[in-house]
Design a protein that fits this description.
The complex is a heterodimer. By secondary structure, chain A is of the alpha/beta class. In chain A, 36% of the residues lie in helices and 14% in strands. Chain A has a single domain, classed as Amidase signature (AS) enzymes, CATH 3.90.1300. In chain A, strands 1-3-2-4-6-5-10-11-9-7-8 form an eleven-stranded mixed β-sheet, sandwiched between helices.
């Protein structure tokens, strides 16, 4: 035992608080000290909540009086900077929203606060969530805690790096296509994307509205499940949220084996260009799942390049419309502060929606999206889940995104189809290559959160791939 | 040279729904005269991360308007984003309907029996309002977002109208219908109903360039604007012979002081609004059971009420004046059903009654029967008795008699009035008139 506070999961921290081994103030103070010590180097937090300690002291008084009464009471949490937080700047890592203090609270952070959580600060990301590197942040890139010469992935790179560097016990990210799972994979931590409509988008600065899905980045599947049970569910402020009841996901992780489960290994996601070491790790994972009693079969799905094509058109189109409100009149800064990537996306999206091009691009993309959805529907009639790599390779070096406008799409090619179809998916570490983590995705049908979390949890409990880079 | 000129007129009518809350948020929809920017929230201000949640009542009201206008209701419909920049548009796009509106392909009948086809009835959100003013000696444009997000129904006709009179009749009928079904107060002065005629001419088979007239807020202004356009376009065509093309559509405003239209915008090409399905709002499935339920909630529509009144013997011109006045309608219903004992006793000429009510001769809050009887009572007709009174008046007014004899026959009314007065209202006016005419011959 004798673990330090930053080595404990959320579940362990809650036990500690219950047993009065430490207070919320001690947890928060411990993390604030670590942030103070390491953040200048890693550039994970854009804004640190100066009131965090005061808030923790209040929680401690509550606990003293009534004991633990809320699911996340006293737990510090890092929030991606595209979630609106009252009292903390929210910039989406863009200069256009520099110093923007929101007038209202996002549903996700509102639910976290109501559950007793304390916001540690706001984490760096690709500006407007455009990218998979965090290198397009207009406040400088976040560095990968495993190797400072490498990128953390993105767009939720700050949130993933915060977990890897143990500068937060839990973080919130959002993904439009892989922006939770890919940085989690590159940073060797767990990322969970609920089905589209499972977690409210209200108060999340919109990227591509039809696939945006908030979710946790965590030390473990169990922690991710716990947080999701707090933030998920119907929201009267988001018409796309599902009315399905939210289950206590973390309490439903009960599997001891995978008997009766059929899992697909998607051949087409083992790209010819991928390094054999990555393929080996995925095959190893398949063997492990078999050893737990699952039947694993190789299947063929549509080449993910089509999904990337669909996504590129739909996402750019939605982006061009979603960014229109930052018109230079209302938020204090002019539009010329948009970075290169945002400008590229606005132009491409404007083009694909223009009269005469709409049918050729947007409409066709919608039709192909329907095909992808149909294909998954058929797949899940036969299989409980499919597996594959999260990203074709490990973290890439700083600077590689220069002049690579499709970098993100290539890094997310293997998780993109699941985002397009609104599926639920976990990314978990499954080994290292050259000292850098590789992520395994376990993806299931819409609203099968329990099944996928349960499966991923058993995989994590029966393997030993969760590691943290030395940061002491 | 030009002989055969026929105007081609289509109408777009915007109607603000009088719902309690706005289209996509909980702010009050009643914005008229409110302190600027006091009825706003993240959603209607278009703040980062805010999302629209549709107002079910507004959708139902839109479908009711569609049903009242004999429209088909789309089983699947959705909102679209209409992308354009304007400072009063908080999100940089307006949520509207493009490819799948709630209602389509209806019609409205004019009194002549002419059918005006309705292309679509769709729902969208209103924009904010700009105020151009001077503040601290500086010319400024201020934005009031109270109106931003108020539900707005657009009723689009086919270009089936051929005169400003037809346009006026169409507009008055639309106005009467939306008010009757109770979805809007449709107060034109408050901008709750805005009229946009599209006008061009067919001159001997040549079509003049299309003109869209924007944001007119009175039926008479619409008539004047259309009439002005007809003569302006006729003159323009005689001068330049320019015909309608894709690139010469104009947007014009109406100046109600000068009674002229003026150029606002020449469209080089059709505006590209880059419509695409609104991803923040799932599509709607509106099945037959919902449609029938809403149809069942529709009240009797103005034309049907008027037809009923006419069948009771009331002239159409009176029927049109009283059908939407609940108090009068109550009285007529009572008489029609003959269940009011006091009135039942008398044989009431219902058309005469309505005429007297319309002309405000009868105070409808008073005793209707007594007033009616008094007003329609036949007076003294005994010519011998009346002759004495007539003679007296003629003797008293020699100058008037002289004027009459010189040909100024209009003075007869004065003399009749004088005799009536003398008889304390008891004389029969017709008899008096006949007597006077005879004596003055």
């Amino acid at each position: 035992m004798n673990k330090q506070i930053h080595e404990l999961s959320v579940v362990e921290l809650l036990h500690g608080l219950e047993d009065k081994r430490f207070s919320s103030s001690e947890i928060v103070k411990h993390y604030l000290d670590r942030i103070e010590k390491y953040n200048s180097e890693l550039n994970i937090y854009l804004h640190v909540n100066e009131k965090a300690l005061g808030q923790a002291q209040k929680v401690d008084e509550e606990i003293k009086k009534n004991g633990l009464t809320k699911p996340l009471q006293g737990i510090p949490v890092a929030i991606k900077d595209n979630f609106l937080t009252v009292g903390l700047p929210t910039t989406a890592s863009s200069l256009v929203l520099k110093d923007y203090y929101p007038q209202y609270e996002s549903t996700v952070t509102r639910r976290l606060i109501d559950a007793g959580a304390i916001i540690l600060g706001k984490t760096n990301m690709d500006a407007w969530a455009h990218g998979s590197s965090t290198e397009s942040s207009q406040y400088g890139p976040t560095l990968n805690p495993w190797d400072l010469g490498h990128l953390p992935g993105g767009s939720s790179g700050g949130s993933a790096a915060a977990i890897a560097a143990q500068l937060a016990p839990i973080a919130i990210g959002s993904e439009t296509s892989g922006s939770i799972r890919q940085p989690a994979a590159w940073c060797g931590v767990t990322g969970f994307k609920g089905s589209y409509g499972r977690v409210s988008r209200y108060g999340v600065i919109a990227m591509a509205s039809s696939t945006d899905s908030p979710g946790p980045i965590a030390r473990s599947v169990e922690d991710a499940a716990l947080i999701t049970s707090v933030i998920a569910g119907l929201d009267k402020y988001d018409a796309t949220t599902s009315p399905r009841a939210v289950e206590p996901y973390h309490q439903l992780l009960k599997r001891k084996d995978l008997k009766g489960m059929k899992i697909a290994l998607v051949k087409d996601y083992l790209l010819p260009s991928m390094r054999t070491e990555v393929k080996t790790l995925i095959h190893n994972a398949a063997r492990h799942l078999e050893s737990l009693g699952a039947i694993v079969e190789e299947i063929s799905l549509m080449d993910p390049k089509y999904s990337i094509g669909v996504y590129t058109v739909l996402q750019r189109s939605e982006v061009s419309s979603n960014l229109a409100r930052y018109d230079g009149i209302r938020y204090g800064f002019d539009r010329d502060l948009f970075g290169e990537e945002a400008k590229r996306r606005i132009m491409l999206g404007t083009y694909t929606l223009s009269a005469g091009y709409y049918d050729a691009y947007y409409k066709k993309a919608l039709a192909v999206r329907t095909k992808i959805v149909d294909e998954f529907e058929n797949t899940f009639k036969q299989f409980d889940a499919y597996i594959g790599a999260v990203s074709p390779g490990p973290a890439q070096k700083l600077g590689v995104t220069q002049n690579e406008s499709m970098f993100g799409e290539m890094a997310d090619v293997l998780v993109n189809p699941s985002s397009i179809a609104g599926l639920t998916s976990v990314g978990v570490p499954c080994g290292l290559i050259d000292g850098l983590p590789i992520g395994l995705q376990i993806t299931g049908n819409q609203f099968e959160e329990v099944k996928i979390l349960d499966l991923a949890n058993l995989y994590q409990q029966t393997t030993d791939f969760v590691k943290f880079p030395k940061y002491d | 040279m030009t002989n055969n000129i026929s105007p081609i007129i289509g109408l777009e009518v915007h109607v603000e729904l009088t719902t309690k809350s706005k289209m996509f948020c909980g702010c009050p929809a009643d914005h008229f005269g409110k302190v600027p920017n006091t009825q706003t929230c993240p959603v209607c201000l278009g703040l980062p991360g805010a999302l629209p949640v549709p107002n079910q009542k507004a959708i139902e009201d839109t479908i009711k308007i569609g049903l009242a206008l004999n429209c088909q209701i789309n089983e699947v419909s959705h909102f679209d984003r209409k992308n354009y920049f304007y400072p009063d548009l908080s999100k940089g796009y307006q949520i509207s309907q493009y490819t799948e509106p709630f209602c389509h392909d209806g019609f409205l009948l004019l009194d002549s029996g002419k059918k005006i086809r309705i292309e679509r009835v769709h729902l969208e959100e209103d924009t904010g309002k700009l105020q151009h003013t001077t503040l601290n000696d500086e010319r400024v444009s201020l934005i009031d977002f109270n109106r931003s997000g108020v539900p707005l129904v657009e009723i689009v006709s086919q270009p089936d109208l051929s005169s400003s009179e037809e346009a006026k009749e169409y507009l008055k009928k639309i106005h009467a219908i939306v008010k009757e079904i109770g979805v809007t107060t449709a107060d034109l002065e408050k901008g709750q109903m805005r009229l946009e005629p599209t006008v061009n001419l067919n001159i001997d088979g040549h079509f003049t360039p299309l003109v869209e007239l924007k944001n007119i807020n009175s039926f008479n202004f619409a008539v004047q604007a259309i009439d002005y356009e007809v003569s302006r376009q006729t003159a323009a065509f005689e001068k330049d012979g320019l015909e309608k093309s894709k690139s010469n559509k104009q947007t014009r405003g109406y100046d109600s002081v000068k009674k002229t239209t003026f150029l606002q915008r020449q469209k080089e090409e059709a505006n590209d609004y880059r419509y695409f399905p609104e991803p923040d709002i799932p599509p709607f499935r509106i099945g037959p059971s919902i449609v029938e339920k809403l149809r069942g909630q529709l009240p009797q529509l103005p034309d049907a009420i008027i037809t009923d009144l006419v069948s009771l013997g009331i002239e159409q011109r009176f029927a049109k004046l009283v059908y939407n006045k609940p108090k009068i309608m109550n009285i007529l219903n009572v008489i029609a059903r003959r269940n009011d004992v006091a009135i039942q006793d008398t044989k009431i000429d219902i058309n005469k009654l309505v005429s007297l009510i319309v002309n405000k001769k009868i105070d409808i809050s008073g005793d209707i029967k007594a007033q009616f009887e008094k007003l329609t009572a036949v007076g003294e007709t005994d010519t011998e008795k009346l002759a004495a009174l007539v003679d007296e008046i003629l003797t008293q007014n020699p100058k008037v008699v002289e004027e009459y004899k010189k040909g100024k026959t209009a003075v007869l009314g004065f003399l009749v009035g004088a005799v009536m007065k003398l008889s304390q209202g008891q004389a029969d006016a017709q008899t008096v008139t006949a007597l006077l005419q005879e004596k003055l011959r």
